[in-house]
Amino acid sequence: MFNDLHIQEWIESHGTATSFTFVVFGDLKEEEVELLIKGVVIHLQQIKKYSEMAVFFDPIDEKQAVAWNTYQGTSLAFIFAGDASETENTIKGIILDGLNFLRYKCEYLGIKVSENYV
């Protein structure tokens, strides 16, 4: 994720990038991810904490599930330009509520702030 060229540009210009990672125990559809994105954007705009955002969602097959000691499903990551750690509870709540609404079992894996060490 943080190896993505666009994310690297964010780290260069903002000093950090923040990711919130979830595992979804099912196959998320693109439309469902778009719904989650809209929920996050609207909430963060209302509290005036919105920054540039990228979303990555990739299937987890059996081989990856064994390697990562998890279950098959979908890896879902929301990445923000800059340090968004103060919004962790908000973002976590929005995504978990949204996935619950969509009837998916899921788990929040945590937050990671990547900094520019150059």
Quick summary:
With 118 residues, this protein is an alpha+beta fold.
Tell me about this structure.
- The protein has helices at 5-14, 30-46, 62-68, 88-101; strands at 16-24, 53-60, 73-81, 106-115.
- Helices cover 41% and strands 31% of the residues.
- The longest helix is centred in the first third of the chain and has 17 residues, at 30-46.
- The chain contains four helices and four strands.
- The chain has a four-stranded antiparallel sheet with strand order 2-3-1-4.
- α2 packs antiparallel against α4 (88-101).
- It is an alpha+beta fold and 118 residues long.
Per-chain topology:
Elements: H1 5-14, E1 16-24, H2 30-46, E2 53-60, H3 62-68, E3 73-81, H4 88-101, E4 106-115
Antiparallel strand pairs: 1-3, 1-4, 2-3
Helix pairs in contact: 2-4
- As residue ranges, the low-confidence spans are none
Order of helices and strands: HEHEHEHE
The level 1 CATH classification is: Alpha Beta
Class inferred from helices and paired strands:
alpha+beta
Mean pLDDT: 88
Termini separation comes to 19 Å
Q: Main sheet: which strands, in order across? A: 2-3-1-4
How many separate structural domains?
1
| Amount of beta strand | 25-35%
Q: What tags apply to this protein structure?
A:
118 residues, alpha+beta, Alpha-Beta Plaits, 4-stranded antiparallel beta sheet, 4 helices, 4 strands, 41% helix
